Amino acid sequence: MLFKLAFKNMKKSIKDYSIYFLTLVLGVAIFYMFNSLDSQQAMLQISRFDKIFNKIDD
User: Fold this and answer.
1) pLDDT tens profile 7-47
2) Global model pTM greater than 0.85
3) Which domain holds residue 39?
């Protein structure tokens, strides 16, 4: 009985909760995107140094 009542309530509230969930997912994705930009600059620098060192070895 209580499970049936809870399930009906969940079905009615799914629109409201889906908006919150999608907003949370979007926020986390943007957070990681901006954090990865810093890492990307470091990787670009490493590749530049790698090219310089490869020229020295040749």
Assistant:
1) 999 888 998 889 999 999 999 999 998 888 777 777 777 77
2) no
3) 16-51
Residue 24's contacts (CB-CB under 8 Å, 6 or more residues apart) are: none
Q: For residue 7, is it within any domain?
A: no
How far is residue 11's CA from residue 52's CA, in Å, rounded to a whole number? Answer: 60
The string of DSSP codes covering 1-58 is -HHHHHHHHHHHHHHHHHHHHHHHHHHHHHHHHHHHHHHHHHHHHHHHHHHHHHHHH-
Q: What is the Cα–Cα distance from 48 to 33, expressed in whole angstroms? A: 23
Rg (CA), the chain: 24
